């Protein structure tokens, strides 16, 4: 069966179309939010922070930014001091409406990182999200390595823009070294969890780290190699012996609604249409693995 017909059978593909989302991966973020209450602008989240500024790294075609915009940009929005979302991707994105600034650039380049940081004019964001995925080569080790580099760049940028207590959500591939990544993230954040959409293909190693409670002593790591150098006591992300990994008890929690995500009642939201882009979304309810110190 071809890819198109497979997509068309997918409930989240259809619901994304019905709800005007640019990609069905919108539901991944919605369901992570349902579990972690990350960026609800009206209620307080677990860190006690009201999200007013957010960064969406690797944002195209823009469905995660649409979710952010729905959550943060309310009717009282004003340009002067309203909520602010910065969406960044290698690819150009169609406008995401008021309050969402689109930057075209490579997040692994220092220039892009600097323009994201500059955008905040010294203010900090309460949330950074990253759904980055490089073009896959099919060579497993290379794909995992490139994804790791993307994640390191996202973390380095995050240390410049995230406020004390802020949250970071990022796509990961659960490969060989993922235990070390969790351990290092736990140094920087009070709480680190892993959410895995349950309808993800069994063959997919995609999951999302949900990191809450940023410790600002890790702010402003050098943009090149910063993550490694600051955490040298624990060893670098890629070059540490397995013996260096601090063992953690890993509670496993399955949660989420297996019936899928309901289309909101009422008229379909009016959103701009964009050109069709390829994306590898698998949306669904979530299984959560928690790592707590
Ligand atoms: N979250 C998005 C959404 O909901 O619409 C989907 C993101 S898509 C799965 C992955 C994106 O990562 C692609 O648009 C790709 O261009 C972007 N990407 C990959 N490498 C990148 C890099 N080095 N810098 C910026 N964006 C990158």
User: Span from first to last CA?
Assistant: 46 Å
Rg estimate, integer Å: 18 Å
The helical percent reads 25-40%
User: Which secondary-structure class do the elements indicate?
Assistant: alpha/beta
General shape: globular
Number of strands: 9
Order of helices and strands: HHHEHEEHEHEHEEHEE
Strand proportion: 15-25%
Number of helices: 8
Task: Report the biggest beta sheet as strand number plus sense, adding barrel if it closes.
Answer: 9 strands, mixed
| Distinct bound molecules | S-adenosylmethionine
Stretches where pLDDT is under 50 for at least 5 consecutive residues are 229-240, 247-256, 274-286
Strand order of the largest sheet: 3-2-1-4-5-7-6-9-8
Indicate the mean pLDDT. 76
Outline the structure in words.
This protein has 293 residues and is an alpha/beta fold. The protein contains eight helices and nine strands. Strands 3-2-1-4-5-7-6-9-8 form a nine-stranded mixed beta sheet, sandwiched between helices. Helix 6 (140-161) links the parallel strand 4 (125-130) and strand 5 (162-173). Helix 5 runs parallel beside helix 6. The longest helix has 22 residues, at 140-161. It is globular, with a radius of gyration of 18 Å. Residues 229-240, 247-256 and 274-286 have low confidence and may be disordered. The structure holds S-adenosylmethionine. S-adenosylmethionine binds at residues 22-23, 25-26, 58-64, 89-91, 106-108, 131-134, 150, 279-280. S-adenosylmethionine (SAM) is lined by residues 22-23, 25-26, 58-64, 89-91, 106-108, 131-134, 150, 279-280. It catalyses: cytidine(32)/guanosine(34) in tRNA + 2 S-adenosyl-L-methionine = 2'-O-methylcytidine(32)/2'-O-methylguanosine(34) in tRNA + 2 S-adenosyl-L-homocysteine + 2 H(+). It holds the Pfam family FtsJ. InterPro entries: RNA_methyltr_E_TRM7, RNA_methyltr_RlmE, RNA_MeTrfase_FtsJ_dom, rRNA-MeTfrase_E, SAM-dependent_MTases_sf.
């Amino acid at each position: 069966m071809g890819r198109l017909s497979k997509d068309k059978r997918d409930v989240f593909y259809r619901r994304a179309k019905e709800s005007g989302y640019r990609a069905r991966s919108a539901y991944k973020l919605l369901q992570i939010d349902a579990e972690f209450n990350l960026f609800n602008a009206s209620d307080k989240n677990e860190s006690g922070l009201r999200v007013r500024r957010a960064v969406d790294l690797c944002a195209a075609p823009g469905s995660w930014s649409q979710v952010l915009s729905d959550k943060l940009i309310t009717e009282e929005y004003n340009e002067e001091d309203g909520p602010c979302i910065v969406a960044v991707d290698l690819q150009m994105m169609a406008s995401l409406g008021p309050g969402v600034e689109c930057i075209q650039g490579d997040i692994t380049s220092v220039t892009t990182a600097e323009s994201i940081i500059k955008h905040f004019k010294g203010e900090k964001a309460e949330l950074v999200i990253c759904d980055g995925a490089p073009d896959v080569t099919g060579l497993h080790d290379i794909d995992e390595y490139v994804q790791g580099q993307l994640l390191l760049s996202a973390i380095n940028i995050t240390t410049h823009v995230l406020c004390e207590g802020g949250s970071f959500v990022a796509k990961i591939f659960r490969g060989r070294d993922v235990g070390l990544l969790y351990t290092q993230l736990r140094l920087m954040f009070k709480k680190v969890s892993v959410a895995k959409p349950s309808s993800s293909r069994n063959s997919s190693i995609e999951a999302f780290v949900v990191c809450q409670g940023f410790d600002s002593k890790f702010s402003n790591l050098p943009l090149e190699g910063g993550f490694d150098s600051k955490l040298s006591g624990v060893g670098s992300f890629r070059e540490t012996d397995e013996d260096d990994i601090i063992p953690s008890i890993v509670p496993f929690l399955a949660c989420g609604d297996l019936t899928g995500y309901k289309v909101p009642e009422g008229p379909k939201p009016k959103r701009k249409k964009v050109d069709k882009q390829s994306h590898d979304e698998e949306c669904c309810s979530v299984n959560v693995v928690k790592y707590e110190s």
